[in-house]
Design brief:
Pfam families: DUF4357. This is GIY-YIG nuclease family protein. InterPro entries: DUF4357. With about 300 residues, this protein is an alpha+beta fold. The protein folds into two domains: about 160 residues, no CATH class; about 120 residues, no CATH class. About 25% of the residues lie in helices and about 25% in strands. β10 and β11 form a beta hairpin.
């Protein structure tokens, strides 16, 4: 079955694409907001932000430079305050000074209670951990709660829509780096055609990478060449330095690492100035350049 398109509405609350954004999706009762930390006060008085919901605090670690996220829930309080009030509390908390932007999920019909937000907080936190895109700052695993199978099905549908909206708002917190490129087959078959794996096996390197929509992801377990040649570009040296803690004593990577270009990835692996279109090869020995030429001619 062919994948259907989605209609998403983005409303720039103050007319600024870098300001507060409200996001809705056709046939979905959910409502999402993207709110810069500096713009929280601009959202005062919005009824849906006084409701219960789940929120994400996005930022960068001062110590490591890693992207970080905190996932939380906010229930309605006796004073009538909900999500926005909780975000304001986080802004005043010196232990959470790392975040620069919040993404909030609530509903247009105020249908979230304690059970729903506990379930969603748990699901979103564990999805973010599994994707390994961000350092997840949650200290404890949120409680999943006891829900009926009917409610679980309903909430899982909410999760599916939330994943689409989160990506639209610029945060791929739920998407693993090594996620395959998937394209709909021209014949209308139900089985999708997946992206290709590529390899470099020479000069002491034994690396495997996967082609994705964002670039080439060198997969955990790949072994890179230890020596840096004089031709090694500065960007490759910097990438090795930035990822030093993820490279063990044998040169094996302990995590997936994304590179925007094939040559950036092969420079990193081989410690030299290289041509990624030639260095990366399929299991059958075709270079990336040959593979893409074949894909173009077949398309």
């Amino acid at each position: 079955m062919a994948t259907r398109g989605k209609s998403i509405n983005l409303f720039l609350i103050d007319g600024d694409p870098n300001g507060c954004i409200k996001c809705t999706l056709a046939n979905w009762t959910g409502v999402a907001y993207k709110i810069p930390r500096t713009e929280l006060d601009q959202c005062k008085g919005r009824d849906d932000l006084s409701q219960s919901g789940v929120y994400f605090l996005f930022g960068v670690s001062d110590q490591t430079g890693e992207d970080v996220v905190y996932v939380g829930q906010a229930g309605v309080r006796k004073n009538g305050e909900g999500i926005l009030y909780r975000l304001q509390e986080h802004r005043r908390n010196p232990e959470k000074d790392y975040w620069t932007e919040a993404v909030v999920f609530t509903t247009s019909n105020n249908s979230f209670g304690p059970t729903e937000i506990s379930y969603l907080e748990n699901r979103f936190t564990n999805m973010a951990i599994a994707a390994k895109r961000y350092l997840v700052k949650n200290g404890n695993d949120p409680t999943l709660g006891n829900i009926t199978e009917e409610k679980e099905s309903e909430l899982e549908e909410f999760v599916d829509y939330a994943k689409i909206v989160m990506g639209t708002l610029g945060h791929k917190v739920f998407e693993p780096l090594s996620q395959l490129v998937v394209t709909a087959p021209p014949t209308g078959e139900e089985t999708p055609q997946a992206g290709e794996n590529f390899f470099i096996k020479r000069s002491g390197a034994d690396a495997k990478a996967r082609l994705t929509n964002e670039g080439l992801v060198i997969l955990a377990g790949s072994v890179i060449r230890e020596e840096l040649l004089s031709s090694c570009p500065d960007h490759a040296k910097s990438a090795r330095e930035d990822n030093r803690k993820y490279i063990d004593e044998n040169g094996a990577l302990q995590k997936d690492i994304l590179f925007k270009t094939p040559s950036g990835a092969s420079d990193f692996v081989l410690g030299a100035s290289t041509s990624g279109n030639v260095e990366w090869k399929t299991a059958e020995g075709k270079t990336l350049k040959e593979f893409e030429a074949r894909e173009t001619s077949e398309g």
